[in-house]
Each structure stands twice: as structure tokens, then as C-alpha cells.
Amino acid sequence: MSLDERLKLKLHLWICAWCQWYIEHLQIIRETARAKADELPEYAPGGLSNEARERIRRNLTNQN
Q: Cα(10)–Cα(7) distance, rounded to whole angstroms?
């Protein structure tokens, strides 16, 4: 963004209560997501565990 655009944005954010509220809530969501990410099991980033995949596979096979 240009200097002019940044200044206009800062002025708007300083004045606009709705945008201030929005930014505060984004920050809360971001912090919560980061905190929860640390609590996830090791297999979560790559998807389902092998056990979960096998349970799903068995359930799908039993339905057909």
C-alpha cells in the first residue's frame, strides 16, 4: 500500500468502532487458534491417524 493509503487506513481504524471491534476479535481468534494448535495430536497436521482411517474404511465397507 502507498503511504497515503496506509495513513487513510490508520485514520479509519482510529475512528471506526466497528473496525476496531473486528480487529480485536480477529486477534482473539488468531491467539486462540495458535494456542489450540499446540494442543493437537501429532497426526493432526497430516490429517487422520491410521487408526481413524481404518475405522472409517471398515464403517464404509459395512454400509455397502
A: 5
